[in-house]
């Protein structure tokens, strides 16, 4: 059974990485976590550095990375020892048996996949949002970064990793992967933050995401889309 390396890109996350590590240490079968930090805030960098003492045998920290999730995740993947890579956002929480589910998927013949998501907010509207995200992903075989994309390391390298673009790197990467094979769609959900909808408003956020996807489909540059999306990711 292949070892799974979890890769997490960070940028000025404050206390969030400490909470994430506390969560990951509770996963069954955890072997390797790689944090790739591009923080430009000294306090955030210091907090990330201090995590090394928590679990030095399983946790690796790469600091001073160029900013950008694609660049950071590619760097983490390059340093990983695992035969499987699992890319995770700092504000996401995996089910306790996530690594077993991933490894079982790969052992059964899948080369890549993702989890369904559940948003960490109460209310029917959030259940509707997450259901639509999961159905869209299932129909199009496209995964977003907050769905915990996993992939065989060999395939990741054959595809050249994440395209180094400012936004939509997860969509672009999924398109590369699905040319090779269909993904494993794990129904056991991971929990992810609803702050995007809470901070910006549900309707404005949904409309913005539709607009960004449409513009991307029309060929708009990722740099332009990043400017429209703003700093929060």
Topology:
Layout: E1 4-10, H1 16-24, E2 32-37, H2 42-50, E3 59-63, H3 69-79, E4 84-87, H4 98-107, E5 112-119, H5 124-140, E6 150-152, H6 153-158, H7 169-178, E7 184-192, H8 195-200, H9 202-217, H10 222-229
Parallel strand pairs: 1-2, 1-4, 2-3, 5-7
Antiparallel strand pairs: 4-6, 5-6
Helix pairs in contact: 9-10
Give a quick precis of the structure.
With 233 residues, the chain is an alpha/beta fold. It is built from ten helices and seven strands. Strands 3-2-1-4-6-5-7 form a seven-stranded mixed beta sheet, with helices on both faces.
Structural description of this entry:
Helices cover about 45% and strands about 20% of the residues. By secondary structure, it is of the alpha/beta class. It has a 7-stranded mixed β-sheet, with helices on both faces. The chain has helices at about 15-25, 40-50, 70-80, 100-105, 125-140, 155-160, 170-180, 195-200, 200-215, 220-230; strands at about 5-10, 30-35, 60-65, 85, 110-120, 150, 185-190. The model has no long low-confidence stretch (mean pLDDT about 90). The radius of gyration is 17 Å and the shape is globular. Helix 9 (about 200-215) packs antiparallel against helix 10.
Low-confidence segments, given as residue ranges, are none
What's the overall average pLDDT, rounded? 91
User: Counting H and I runs of at least 4 residues, what is the number of helices?
Assistant: 10
Structure class: alpha/beta
**Helical content (DSSP H or I, runs of 4+):** 40-55%
Tell me the major beta sheet: 7 strands, mixed
Radius of gyration equals: 17 Å
**Outline type:** globular
**Biggest sheet, strands in spatial order?**
3-2-1-4-6-5-7
Give, in order, the helices and strands. Answer: EHEHEHEHEHEHHEHHH
DSSP, total strands: 7
Strand portion, in percent?
A: 15-25%
The separation of the N and C termini measures 34 Å
Oligomer: single chain
